[in-house]
């Protein structure tokens, strides 16, 4: 039978072992992988594996609604995974600065339920005294963007389970895992980001994946307020002459496995809305869009 794409929310009816009463049962969740077995992650986070021969029906469902608390937890873990060189809390906002290197490391994000517009003058002063644009990182639902304000660098935040990526052979893994970027990693990355910015986390662990001369990426494990441990993928780049070779998938699979080994149950990444090639790759790896975020200068509100 034709199967929905990986990442789709589905209901599967399947046969139980002979003699079971009732003989069939159902499972609802997001499709993780297909093949000899069909794997589904349920709402509770359990992974159910069903032999493909036992599947009776599989039906695509509408995406489950996302709770604001789920968004807050992912954004909290992500902010701790890329905190810049300096960070501080102000009335529920986490203010990060990194001498202007990257929007993510030089923006304030509303993580506390108390975060509102009353803090914006102090946020603007914080950044302007450092010679920086007072960027706000505004995820869906955590801050209401007034009409008429044009956002900058709108981003998809995609999530999935951590763990081993289906279809990737760990015995044929060319990925090196480094404690910090080496010269080859920086050459492939091609961005002038200081190593101290790349290695910074708050109460987290970080690793740098490399397929020498071909692909690089970063993973950081941090905790959300609800206790969930997340691994975030970032700085993923494949050298131009090495693209469409499967290196990005191998690299990300190794970083996801590393995150799971370091206690992460869930994974996230951020991709620009207009980077369709990247979003399609990540969808094929069972990442699904949870929410969007964007940057806005504080003085525009």
From TrEMBL:
InterPro entries: Acyl_CoA_acyltransferase, GNAT_dom, Rv0428c-like_C, SH3_Rv0428c. This is GNAT family N-acetyltransferase. Pfam families: Rv0428c_C, SH3_Rv0428c. Residues 157-301 form the N-acetyltransferase domain. It comes from Mycobacterium deserti.
């Amino acid at each position: 039978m034709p199967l929905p794409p990986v990442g789709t929310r589905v209901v599967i009816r399947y046969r139980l072992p002979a003699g079971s009463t009732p003989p069939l049962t159902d499972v609802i969740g997001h499709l993780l992988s297909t093949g000899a077995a069909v794997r589904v992650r349920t709402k509770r986070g359990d992974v159910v594996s069903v032999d493909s021969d036992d599947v009776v029906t599989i039906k695509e469902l509408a995406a489950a609604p996302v709770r604001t608390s789920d968004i807050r937890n992912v954004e909290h873990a992500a902010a701790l995974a890329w905190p810049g060189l300096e960070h501080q809390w102000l009335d529920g906002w986490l203010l990060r600065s990194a001498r202007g290197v990257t929007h993510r490391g030089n923006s304030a994000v509303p993580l506390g339920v108390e975060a509102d517009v009353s803090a914006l003058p102090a946020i603007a002063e914080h950044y302007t005294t450092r010679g920086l644009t007072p960027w706000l990182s505004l995820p869906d639902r955590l801050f209401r963007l007034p009409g008429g304000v044009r956002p900058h660098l709108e981003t998809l935040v995609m999530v999935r389970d951590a763990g081993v990526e289906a279809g990737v052979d760990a015995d044929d893994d060319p990925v090196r895992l480094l404690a910090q970027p080496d010269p080859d990693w920086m050459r492939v990355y091609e961005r002038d980001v200081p190593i101290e910015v790349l290695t910074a986390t708050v109460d987290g662990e970080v690793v740098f994946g490399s397929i020498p001369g071909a692909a690089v990426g970063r993973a950081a494990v941090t905790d959300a307020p609800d206790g969930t441990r997340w691994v975030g993928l970032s700085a993923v780049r494949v050298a131009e002459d090495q693209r469409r070779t499967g290196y990005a998938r191998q690299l990300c699979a190794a970083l996801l496995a590393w995150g799971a080994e370091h206690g992460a149950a869930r994974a996230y990444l951020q991709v620009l809305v207009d980077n369709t090639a990247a979003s399609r790759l990540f969808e094929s790896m069972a990442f699904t869009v949870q929410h969007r975020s964007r940057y806005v200068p504080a003085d525009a509100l």
